[in-house]
């Protein structure tokens, strides 16, 4: 079997028509729909080209200059470029910060931080998942330790205030004094306000804990300088690169290095976390780096320093604010009363519509979002809100006036849902049945879906034309 063999040089469209059709179907779905899942984005052609390049073929365990395999002269240059550009994108000095660009994604990056800085069963505190935290911040429930971050470490969550929807820092401080965590995580997956990193730092210092920032959702906004940066106060900062940052599906860890402080006796204390983090990524947790993804990180980080990127991120926030005020104008309740970032958390409790029904009806009309718990929800299994994000639509060129139209589409869909619920009663299965089988409802859905698709197709998508 060699290159002359057909199978090695045929395009997927020729060699595998069945799969090719699925690739085209997905592209068409992305083109026709309104993508409002807050963690998603459309990456650039340059990133996609890196991802399908020959770099994919190379094994390069270890770090640049210290590899376990030969033939890495070029790969070393690629990884060093990705490191340098990652530091530049966040305005970090290489004397004070180092970076590991090898984590396969955000979850492995976080586990590498814990593996490097903690002993098994050391204590961590993160924002609870139903309150807007991430699984990897120690999530467990009364029945089960769900995330490995709660299986191998002891986790205690902090929460948002039920009334305001804002992080309850006082309670975190109080519980941290009792729990004495070794590491506190400042990071969110569903929270529409900026974080008080200074306060997190004080609480960490009071307990001798590391402070880790997980900026997975907001790393694009941070790079563009449109929201406060975690770097001033954190010891470690992890991120994904495929959300607001708009790069490849991958993860990055930044860590402090150099002088930490001067102790009582006037001696300088140095940070000692560089090798802990690097060794945790490889060899503790991972094998060969994904060099195609690392190249894509390099080019995404270069994009992140441009004026166009800054304008994009400003527009992301402006669009989220517009979405908020449009929905508020239509009678919807927004958790925390607004947004500083790229997402909006809508509570549907006053409409007596569950998040699951809202997510379902929106999907029926090609608007993608996800159901989400809101403060005060009794059960995390039956959340009464939806999370909406603007990064992907903004990449397609949406401006505030387009978002006004999007809010109107959402309102139309949710109004149909309320009508359907009157016929179906509260159960989700009955509701779905009515939506699909009732002629009046299903024809309204079909009409709205067509309007949404016609609207969405006016906006370009980056990447390859067909797939
Ligand atoms: C998305 C996310 C992650 C995990 O990233 P994956 O690439 O999905 O593994 C970690 N932390 C936060 C805060 C996130 O939002």
Automatic annotation (TrEMBL):
<comment type="function">
    <text>Interconversion of serine and glycine.</text>
</comment>
<dbReference type="InterPro" id="IPR001085">
    <property type="entry name" value="Ser_HO-MeTrfase"/>
</dbReference>
<keyword id="KW-0554">One-carbon metabolism</keyword>
<dbReference type="GO" id="GO:0004372">
    <property type="term" value="F:glycine hydroxymethyltransferase activity"/>
</dbReference>
<comment type="similarity">
    <text>Belongs to the SHMT family.</text>
</comment>
<keyword id="KW-0663">Pyridoxal phosphate</keyword>
<dbReference type="InterPro" id="IPR015422">
    <property type="entry name" value="PyrdxlP-dep_Trfase_small"/>
</dbReference>
<keyword id="KW-0808">Transferase</keyword>
<dbReference type="GO" id="GO:0019264">
    <property type="term" value="P:glycine biosynthetic process from serine"/>
</dbReference>
<comment type="pathway">
    <text>One-carbon metabolism; tetrahydrofolate interconversion.</text>
</comment>
<dbReference type="GO" id="GO:0005634">
    <property type="term" value="C:nucleus"/>
</dbReference>
<feature type="domain" description="Serine hydroxymethyltransferase-like">
    <location>
        <begin position="13"/>
        <end position="410"/>
    </location>
</feature>
<feature type="modified residue" description="N6-(pyridoxal phosphate)lysine">
    <location>
        <position position="243"/>
    </location>
</feature>
<dbReference type="InterPro" id="IPR049943">
    <property type="entry name" value="Ser_HO-MeTrfase-like"/>
</dbReference>
<dbReference type="InterPro" id="IPR015424">
    <property type="entry name" value="PyrdxlP-dep_Trfase"/>
</dbReference>
<protein>
    <recommendedName>
        <fullName>Serine hydroxymethyltransferase</fullName>
        <ecNumber>2.1.2.1</ecNumber>
    </recommendedName>
</protein>
<dbReference type="GO" id="GO:0030170">
    <property type="term" value="F:pyridoxal phosphate binding"/>
</dbReference>
<dbReference type="InterPro" id="IPR015421">
    <property type="entry name" value="PyrdxlP-dep_Trfase_major"/>
</dbReference>
<dbReference type="GO" id="GO:0005739">
    <property type="term" value="C:mitochondrion"/>
</dbReference>
<dbReference type="GO" id="GO:0035999">
    <property type="term" value="P:tetrahydrofolate interconversion"/>
</dbReference>
<dbReference type="InterPro" id="IPR019798">
    <property type="entry name" value="Ser_HO-MeTrfase_PLP_BS"/>
</dbReference>
<dbReference type="InterPro" id="IPR039429">
    <property type="entry name" value="SHMT-like_dom"/>
</dbReference>
<dbReference type="Pfam" id="PF00464">
    <property type="entry name" value="SHMT"/>
</dbReference>
């Amino acid at each position: 079997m060699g290159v002359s063999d057909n199978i090695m040089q045929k395009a997927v469209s020729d060699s595998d028509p069945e799969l090719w059709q699925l690739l085209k179907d997905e592209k068409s779905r992305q083109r026709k729909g309104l993508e409002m899942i807050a963690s998603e984005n459309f990456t650039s052609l340059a990133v996609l080209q890196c991802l399908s390049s020959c770099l994919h073929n190379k094994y390069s365990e270890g770090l640049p200059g210290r590899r376990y395999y030969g033939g890495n002269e070029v790969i070393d240059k690629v990884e060093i470029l990705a490191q340098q550009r990652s530091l530049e994108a966040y305005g970090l000095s290489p004397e004070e910060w180092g970076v590991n660009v090898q984590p396969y994604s955000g979850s492995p990056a976080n586990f590498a931080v814990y593996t490097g800085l903690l002993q098994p069963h050391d204590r961590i505190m993160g924002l609870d998942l139903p309150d807007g935290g991430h699984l990897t911040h120690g999530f467990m429930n009364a029945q089960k330790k769900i995330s490995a971050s709660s299986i191998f470490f002891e986790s205690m969550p902090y929460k948002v205030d039920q009334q305001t929807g804002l992080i309850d820092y006082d309670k975190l401080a109080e519980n941290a004094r009792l729990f004495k965590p070794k590491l506190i995580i400042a990071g969110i997956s569903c929270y529409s306000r900026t974080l008080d990193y200074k306060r997190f730092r004080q609480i960490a210092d009071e307990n001798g804990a590391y402070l880790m920032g997980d900026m997975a959702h907001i790393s694009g906004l941070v790079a563009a300088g449109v929201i406060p940066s975690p770097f001033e106060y954190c010891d470690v900062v992890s991120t994904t690169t495929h959300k607001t940052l708009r790069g490849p599906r991958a993860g990055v860890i930044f860590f402090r290095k150099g002088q930490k402080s001067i102790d009582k006796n006037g001696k300088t204390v140095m940070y000692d976390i560089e090798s802990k983090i690097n060794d945790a990524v490889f060899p503790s947790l991972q094998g060969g780096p994904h060099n195609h993804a690392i190249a894509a990180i390099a080019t995404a980080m270069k994009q992140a320093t441009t004026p166009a990127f800054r304008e994009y991120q400003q527009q992301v926030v402006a669009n989220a604010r517009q979405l908020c005020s449009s929905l508020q104008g239509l009678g919807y309740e927004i958790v925390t009363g607004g947004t500083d970032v790229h997402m909006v958390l809508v509570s549907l409790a006053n409409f007596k519509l569950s998040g699951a029904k809202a997510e379902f009806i929106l999907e029926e009309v090609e608007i993608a979002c996800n159901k989400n718990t809101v403060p005060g929800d009794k059960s995390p299994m039956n959340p009464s809100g939806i999370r909406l994000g603007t990064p992907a639509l903004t990449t397609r060129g949406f401006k505030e006036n387009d978002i006004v139209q999007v809010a109107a589409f959402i309102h139309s869909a949710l109004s149909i849902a309320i009508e359907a619920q009157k016929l179906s009663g509260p159960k989700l299965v009955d509701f779905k049945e009515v939506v699909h089988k009732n002629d009046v409802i299903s024809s309204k859905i079909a009409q709205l879906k067509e309007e949404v698709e016609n609207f969405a197709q006016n906006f370009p998508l980056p990447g390859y034309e067909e797939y």
